[in-house]
Amino acid sequence: MLIKKLHEIRASDRNVTDKGWESSRLLLAEDGMGFSFHVTTLHAGGEWTFHYRHHVEAVFVLNGKGSVEDLATGERHALSAGTLYALDQHDQHTLRAESELVTVCVFNPPVTGSEIHDESGAYLPAVLAS
C-alpha cells in the first residue's frame, strides 16, 4: 500500500513548476501503478498549448473556471468544478484559466517526474525521458 500526502509532495522534487502552473506528482512511474496521478494548479489568466503524443490524460477540475479547446476541431469547452475531460486521442489542445484552476490529472503511461514539455507541448515517452 502506498500513502502519499500532498503537503509532503509539495515540499519535494515531485513538485514541478513551469510557466504559470504547478504540478504535485503524487504517483509516478517508479510507484508501479501503471499511471501517474498529479494535482495541478494553473494560474489565472494563463494559456498553454499541449500535445501529449505519447500519453493519454484525464483531467478532473476540482476548482476554478477556464476552457479547453480541441485544436483539430476548434471546439471549445467550458471548464468548472466537477468537469472531466479526457485526451483519449492524444488531442492537441489549448487550456485557458479564467481563474485559478485546480485539477487532478492521470497520465498513462505514467510520467517519471523528470519530463519537460518539448516545443510541441508533449512529454517524451518515459523510456526516452530518463
Describe the structure.
The protein is mostly beta strands. It has a single domain, classed as Jelly Rolls, CATH 2.60.120. It is built from 2 helices and 10 strands; from the N terminus they run H-E-E-E-E-E-E-E-E-E-E-H. The chain has helices at residues 6-10, 126-129; strands at 15-18, 21-27, 36-42, 47-50, 56-63, 65-70, 76-80, 84-87, 93-97, 101-108. The strands form 2 sheets. The chain has a 6-stranded antiparallel sheet. A 4-stranded antiparallel sheet has the order 4-9-6-7, with no helix packed on it. The mean pLDDT is 90. Pfam families: Ectoine_synth (PF06339). Keywords: Lyase. It is an enzyme of class 4 (lyase). Belongs to the ectoine synthase family. Pathway: Amine and polyamine biosynthesis; ectoine biosynthesis; L-ectoine from L-aspartate 4-semialdehyde: step 3/3.
Report the CATH superfamily: Jelly Rolls
Which strands sit side by side, in order, in the main sheet? 1-2-3-10-5-8
* Class of secondary structure makeup: mainly beta
Number of domains: 1
Largest sheet: 6 strands, antiparallel
Provide a concise account of the structure shown.
The chain has 130 residues and is mainly beta. It has helices spanning 6-10, 126-129, and strands spanning 15-18, 21-27, 36-42, 47-50, 56-63, 65-70, 76-80, 84-87, 93-97, 101-108.
What's the SSE blueprint?
Blueprint: H1 6-10, E1 15-18, E2 21-27, E3 36-42, E4 47-50, E5 56-63, E6 65-70, E7 76-80, E8 84-87, E9 93-97, E10 101-108, H2 126-129
Antiparallel strand pairs: 1-2, 2-3, 3-10, 4-9, 5-8, 5-10, 6-7, 6-9
